Amino acid sequence: MTGNYSRFDVPARAANLLLKGARVIDPAIKLDQIVNLHVKDGVLHVISGESVPSGADVIDLRGHWITPGWFDLHVHLREPGKEVAETIATGCMAAMNGGFTGIACMPNTQPPLDDAASVNWVRDQARGFPVEVNVIAAVTRGREGKELVDMSEIVEAGVRAFSDDGGPVKSSAVLRHAVEYSNMLGARIFEHAEDKYLADGGCMNESEWSTRLGVAGIPTIAEAIDVARCVLISEYTGGAIHICHVSARESVEQIRSAKERGLKVTAEVCPHHLLLTDEMCKTFDTNYKMNPPLRGEEDRKACWEAFLDGTLDVYCTDHAPHSWEDKTQEFDVAPFGIVGLETALGLALTHFLNKGMTLETLLDRVVYAPRRILAQDIPSIAEGKPANLTIVDPEHVWKVDPETFKSLSHNTPFGGWEMKGRARGVINRGYALIQTF
Question: Could you tell me which residues are beta bridge partners of residue 39?
Fold first, then answer.
């Protein structure tokens, strides 16, 4: 550990903080230098020299990085309906612990987030945290795939994306109309790309390993066929579609082709699809069970190359909390999904940087691109701007211990992994959380 730290066990007002000696990085304004930042009532001021503003709480951050706040475009908060796995409050705490100042939560709660009232309720629960919770509302009422929600009313409430995530939009006709209406409203559709008929009953990737293990498989084309549907609908309507959690080589090829043709298609990838393969399922550990499933090595490599070249625009977690009781069921019964908010930053710094990916590219995938896709303001580390910051200790070596997570759920395949690089704190919305380890 380097330096001395003030500790805020809970978010505190960022009333008068001097962040001293960090490397401050904001590629959008070509900033990469060691400067002192003064946060006064949530607003940034750049301090030259060694002067200390009157009454400021000085936080020594030598050896650290300060970047614009990280954003996770794909998170499940479970509230309302399954608070035993996660609540909005614990999800925000997990986000802060992982270095995220913004998240987008999916609507597959119980009941689904399919109207303006439920959207506003979620945001109200997140007040007081330095985490902006952006709601992605359901495409169809009840996520039943039949009747579109009142998109206009929900957009007026500040929503800029719709999804029936947890599953695809069932009807191509409904999906087409959803894309047309959302396009007129300046929003976009997020699609969980999956042909349910091909995926039905599957628990892992359809491959040599599913055959060896005697487990029903989900073929890569179950994803790729729906990606093709989305690309064709985007081309036909001129509307914007975002493909969630891409995992398959065939999907990557179609998304790359769509981008080359200038279509409004964006896509995201998760750390588990960049780092793990279906061979991991051989232990029947349900922490390796997710949807889309872990794929083969060729798919993993294809996703990595697409992540590097921008075909896959966004790095996100698909944070999917489940209780211990649910995840300790048999492999074919246990639910899909893993938590990710508290490991994503460490995984990126440990396994991506200096292995083909630059810090500038990584920040594009976790700071700028997610907010562009959601039509949100992009934070800037500049004089007079609102402080929206992620503080990183790039040299901190730590081992993942799920028992220390702020999330209510601990279902991760990365338990015991050694990381180099960890979030030290976040500052946003006039609040700060700075940690010691």
Answer: 17, 44
Q: CA 179 to CA 184: how far, in whole Å?
A: 9
Distance (Å, rounded) from C-alpha 322 to C-alpha 250? Answer: 30
Q: Which of 267, 268, 422 is nearest to 348 (CA)?
A: 422
Q: Cis (ω within 30 of 0) for the bond into 111?
A: yes
Counting every residue, how long is the chain?
437
- What the chain holds in terms of domains, given with CATH numbers, is 12-67+381-434 (2.30.40.10), 69-373 (3.20.20.140)
Helix 249-260 vs helix 220-237: angle between axes, to the nearest 10 degrees? 20
Task: Cis check for the bond before 11: say yes or no (omega within 30 of 0).
Answer: no
Q: How far apart are CA 136 and CA 374, in angstroms?
A: 9
Two structure tokens written together for 349: 């710094």
d(CA 424, CA 421): 9
According to DSSP, the β-strands at 418-428 and 431-434 are: antiparallel
Whether 134 and 162 have beta carbons less than 8 Å apart is answered as no
Q: Phi, psi at residue 361, to the nearest 5°? A: -65, -45
Give the phi and the psi of residue 276 in degrees, each rounded to 5: -120, 160
Instruction: Enumerate the active-site residues.
Output: 318
Angle among Cα 52, 55, 56 to the nearest 5 degrees reads 55
Residue among 230, 113, 234 at smallest CA distance from 183: 234
One pLDDT digit (tens) per residue for the chain, 437 residues: 333 334 556 678 888 999 999 999 999 999 999 999 999 999 999 887 778 999 999 999 999 999 999 999 999 999 999 999 999 999 999 999 999 999 999 999 999 999 999 999 999 999 989 999 999 999 999 999 999 999 999 999 999 999 999 999 999 999 999 999 999 999 999 999 999 999 999 999 999 999 999 999 999 999 999 999 999 999 999 999 999 999 999 999 999 999 999 999 999 999 999 999 999 999 999 999 999 999 999 999 999 999 999 999 999 999 999 999 999 999 999 999 999 999 999 999 999 998 899 999 999 999 999 999 999 999 999 999 999 999 999 999 999 999 999 999 999 999 999 999 999 999 999 999 998 87
| Angle of CA points 73, 94, 387, to nearest 5° | 70
Distance between start and end Cα atoms, the chain: 8
**Number of other residues whose CB lies within 10 A of the CB of residue 72:** 30
